[in-house]
Amino acid sequence: MDKSITLPPDEIFRNLENAKRFAIDIGGSLTKLAYYSTVQHKVAKVRSFDHTAKVPSDKLYEISVQEEITARLHFIKFENAYIETCLDFIKDHLVNTETKVIKATGGGAHKFKDLIEKKLGLKVDKEDEMTCLIKGCNFVLKNIPHEAFVYAKHADSEFRFQNTHPDIFPYLLVNIGSGVSIVKVESEDKFERIGGSSIGGGTFWGLGALLTKTKRFDELLQLASKGQHTSVDMLVKDIYGGSYGSLGLTGDLIASSFGKSATADKDFSKEDMAKSLLHMISNDIGQLACLYAKLHNLSRVYFGGFFIRGHPVTMHTITYSINFFTKGEVQALFLRHEGYLGAIGAFLKGAEEDNPNQYSWGENYAGSSGLMSVSPDINPMQRARSGTFDMLEMDRLERQLVNLPLLQDASSYIPDTVDLTEDALAREYWLSCFEEALDGVVKRAVASQPDIPEAAERAEKFRQKYRHKLQTLRHQPFAYGSLTVRSLLDTREHCLNEFNFPDPYSKIKQRENDVALKYYQKAVKSLEELSWEERQFALVRVELTAGPFCEQLERPWLVDAYDQWIERLKGPPHKCALFFVDNSGMDIILGVMPFVRELLCRGTEVVLASNSGPALNDVTNVLWDFFDNMQNFIDLSRLDKVLAMVVRERQTDLVIIEGMGRAIHTNYYAMLTCESLKMAVIKNSWLADRLGGKLFSVVFKYEDPTRKPSKDTVALTPS
């Protein structure tokens, strides 16, 4: 056993002092450890005031910081060579735990049973490997957006992430370990092994070792990535001099794996033999998977197991095989966290009394390694690191999350307008913006906690961690799924929370709230003095700008459906409007509230939806050209379940989405089953130019699914 490593507890085995409910998955070369912990940190909450009290407060609400305990799941992956050192480390740092049993799965669970029990003093309770694998797969598919991806080797973005379908079942899981198991999964607890093969990862490893004298699996794959299989394989054109047209076979198809080795009087390179072997086994598995998918009428086929392990060359050969045999009808899907499935499933088996599936969970980017490409050409430093330790952390969310019931097709809904993973120019711009803004965020974080001496030290740690995340995303933008402005903000928020800065801009927001409240009554009174037509335009104006930039609102706008909206307002009132808003600042007090008041006067019920805690991206006066009023981003596929119930019960027939973050960066193309109004002022010069407008261009997009799209509504397609 290798004991030469030093393990930093704050980076790998975090929160061990609160750890309980351990699980472990031990494979042929990798160990995956799982445990549950509780994390105490500061949370910013919006507190309302009772205005029926005898002594009413002059504040509508305020932002208060509270201590909160959050449940967190930790998953750590490392090579088996480090298992004894890791167990010693856990034993030395484990403070309080009521755990008496550790759930175990994987082929190595029996081999290391005595060592685990001796080191940790826990009884090893072995769980069925396939059951754990399915449970883990269901869990990540339900809880992690962009978990599944298609691998496209020669595309601008090698990872193309898929939207998680609201109903993940049924699907086919092809688990490629030593052999191959093909499992049909129909529900949370119903699955069946419908087939398999003895020709799998072990075959590749074993035959590869005999052919190349290379004993390490990863080294064998590296050889294959450099090889040319056509030197060893016999192609159709080698037999017929070209394609075989009557059978539809192109000349470059493999007619016989290793076919040339029987007749050629020469030695073949290790690289070429490894590549030929990889193609042979991948094609066999791909064809088998396709046959079972067609037999059971399944379109979603996920591949996992140690044979995959995120290796580009493996994913490419399987993808090619699936495309060939199904003529593109079925896609080969891979999982960002497929290496953790067994450990996650084993953990869930041990935590069934807590019913973790009743909650929604979210990936904590601050404590997760992210998907690392193992291609040596991409980032050798990251590849070396991911070969030792890899981490995934998931936090339990306050509420169970579901789709907005009003989405036309939840399975095709994409929240973000621009995918930075695929758009290199946009990616460079936004990454640079976040890097340039970092000093300002650190300054605000310290200023938000003036009475706490160690705030500056924590803020500096935040700076280092977030800068490292941004550097990682420069090299590997696919690390946490599709890279978007929203995910960059989420990562920043996770890092701030990690160092107990729940809302660095709370002081600014509170001042802005106080100023806005002083002008509210005056604003309402001035609106009441206008004619109906004038008032409707004034309401839109203050909603879009909350006052400061009225001179920029001359029509026509970049996207202008105002006339259609006014015609609709002359008709019967809506039953209920769902309004996505900020929970703080000038916009909601002077912009949203007058607009809502008008809807209420029309007889429309209004539901206001906002974050329970202040967002870190709706701030004024911070890098005006970049962050100003970049309001909350909204993912309509991950909303509070209670809100979804209210939407149904109130028969909501109008959705209003305002602000650049909610209506342009996200949800601009969201298609709803009811009327929708999306409005924003583009307060970023780069984005305005990209969309064919100018700084402070207005987007006013009214859509009615029962009518044809307005000719005034243009597509925001970057030029």
Automatic annotation (TrEMBL):
Q: Name one GO biological process term.
A: coenzyme A biosynthetic process
InterPro entries tied to this protein: ARMT-1-like_metal-bd_sf, ARMT1-like_metal-bd, At2g17340_3_helix_bundle, ATPase_NBD, Type_II_PanK
What Gene Ontology cellular component terms go with this record?
cytosol; nucleus
Q: Which family does it belong to?
A: In the N-terminal section; belongs to the type II pantothenate kinase family.
Q: Which reaction does it catalyse?
A: (R)-4'-phosphopantetheine + H2O = (R)-pantetheine + phosphate; (R)-4'-phosphopantetheine sulfonate + H2O = (R)-pantetheine sulfonate + phosphate; (R)-4'-phospho-S-sulfopantetheine + H2O = (R)-S-sulfopantetheine + phosphate
Q: Which domain of life is it from?
A: Eukaryota
The entry describes its oligomerization and partners as: Homodimer. Interacts with PKM.
Q: Where is each Damage-control phosphatase ARMT1-like metal-binding domain found? A: 436-544, 550-694
Which prosthetic group or cofactor does it need? Answer: Mn(2+); Ni(2+)
Query: What is the protein's given name?
Result: 4'-phosphopantetheine phosphatase
Ordered alphabetically, the record's keywords are: Acetylation, ATP-binding, Coenzyme A biosynthesis, Cytoplasm, Hydrolase, Manganese, Metal-binding, Nickel, Nitration, Nucleotide-binding, Phosphoprotein
GO MF terms held by the record: ATP binding; hydrolase activity; metal ion binding; pantothenate kinase activity
- TM segment ranges: none
The organism's taxonomy opens as: Eukaryota, Metazoa, Chordata, Craniata, Vertebrata
Organism, scientific name:
Myripristis murdjan
Localization, per the record, is: Cytoplasm
**Function as written in the Swiss-Prot or TrEMBL entry:** Phosphatase which shows a preference for 4'-phosphopantetheine and its oxidatively damaged forms (sulfonate or S-sulfonate), providing strong indirect evidence that the phosphatase activity pre-empts damage in the coenzyme A (CoA) pathway. Hydrolyzing excess 4'-phosphopantetheine could constitute a directed overflow mechanism to prevent its oxidation to the S-sulfonate, sulfonate, or other forms. Hydrolyzing 4'-phosphopantetheine sulfonate or S-sulfonate would forestall their conversion to inactive forms of CoA and acyl carrier protein.
Recorded name of the encoding gene: PANK4
Any keyword Methyltransferase? Answer: no
